[in-house]
């Protein structure tokens, strides 16, 4: 297990399915999901809750509101009975309500994090949880592609930021959050021989995992970027 030091405390990075973490924090809570469209269903097709992040959140939450910039998908989801709002998370917005939990999954590395986090702080109850994930900048395949295939280390085409667990935690702390948990996350476990060997490698050097997730608690403390 990896441990990292965040300010004055040491946090162990655990490993779990992203769906288990969603259930843990969404169940019986009022939830806002920033970036609700897509994320595991084919655009324009009817999403299946069991394989779609927002559907999974909606399944367990007391009340769930989704927010997304894709107007057509928002209209589709509303026609299917979901409660979604057409809104750009990179612009200041006001929903006139506070939430127990706010998720933003597969999103923040495409956007200006200062604007997004200011929006989150404004809509999250004191003591509520903000849950955010990102691809790990140190994922081992990026380096293997460079060493073996002479390809530049790849990231997502329109992303604007690189994160690892430490830099994400630093960003959240500067916005007045307290780090609660950190995870290496996956969707499904594979039983293939290759996966077995890779898992053995990552047990020893797990800071090279593909994706991580941070759970942060909202504190009534100074947000150094509140005017950003």
Task: Write up this protein.
The structure is a single chain. With 228 residues, the chain is α/β, with parallel strands linked by helices. It has a single domain, classed as Vaccinia Virus protein VP39 (Rossmann fold), CATH 3.40.50.150. It is built from 7 helices and 9 strands. The chain has helices spanning 18-26, 53-60, 71-79, 113-123, 140-149, 165-174, 193-204; strands at residues 2-6, 9-17, 30-34, 63-68, 84-86, 99-104, 124-135, 177-186, 211-218. The chain has a 9-stranded mixed β-sheet, with helices on both faces. Strand 3 (30-34), helix 2 and strand 4 form a beta-alpha-beta unit. Helix 1 (18-26) runs parallel beside helix 2. The radius of gyration is 18 Å and the shape is globular. It starts with a strand and ends in a 10-residue tail after the last strand. The model has no long low-confidence stretch (mean pLDDT 85).
Task: List the main descriptive attributes of the protein structure presented here.
Rossmann fold; globular; 228 residues; alpha/beta
Give the proportion of residues in helices: 25-40%
Return the structural class: alpha/beta
- The CATH topology comes to Rossmann fold
CATH class: Alpha Beta
Query: How would you state the average pLDDT, rounded?
Result: 85
Inertia-based shape:
globular
Corresponding CATH superfamily: Vaccinia Virus protein VP39
Quote the distance from N terminus to C terminus: 36 Å
How many structural domains does the protein architecture include?
A: 1
Overall strand count: 9
Write down the Rg. 18 Å
Q: Which strand order spans the largest sheet, edge to edge or round the barrel?
A: 1-2-8-9-7-6-3-4-5
């Amino acid at each position: 297990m990896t441990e990292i030091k965040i300010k004055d405390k040491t946090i162990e990075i655990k490993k779990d399915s992203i769906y288990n973490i969603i259930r843990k924090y969404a169940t019986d809570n009022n939830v806002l999901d920033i970036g609700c469209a897509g994320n595991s269903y084919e655009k324009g097709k009817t999403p299946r809750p069991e394989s779609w992040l927002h559907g999974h959140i909606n399944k367990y939450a007391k009340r769930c509101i989704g927010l997304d910039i894709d107007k057509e998908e928002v209209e589709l989801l509303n026609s299917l009975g979901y409660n979604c709002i057409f809104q750009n998370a990179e612009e200041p917005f006001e929903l006139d309500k506070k939430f127990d939990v706010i998720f933003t999954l597969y999103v923040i590395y495409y956007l200006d994090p200062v604007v997004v986090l200011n929006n989150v702080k404004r809509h999250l109850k004191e003591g509520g949880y903000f849950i955010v994930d990102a691809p790990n900048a140190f994922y081992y395949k990026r380096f293997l592609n460079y060493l073996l295939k002479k390809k530049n280390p790849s990231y997502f085409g329109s992303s604007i930021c690189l994160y690892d667990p430490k830099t994400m935690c630093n960003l959240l702390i500067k916005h007045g959050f307290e780090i609660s948990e950190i995870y290496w996350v996956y969707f499904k476990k594979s039983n293939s021989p290759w996966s077995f060997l890779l898992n053995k490698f990552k047990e020893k050097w797990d800071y090279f995992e593909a994706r991580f997730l941070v759970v942060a608690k909202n504190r009534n403390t100074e947000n150094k970027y509140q005017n950003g």
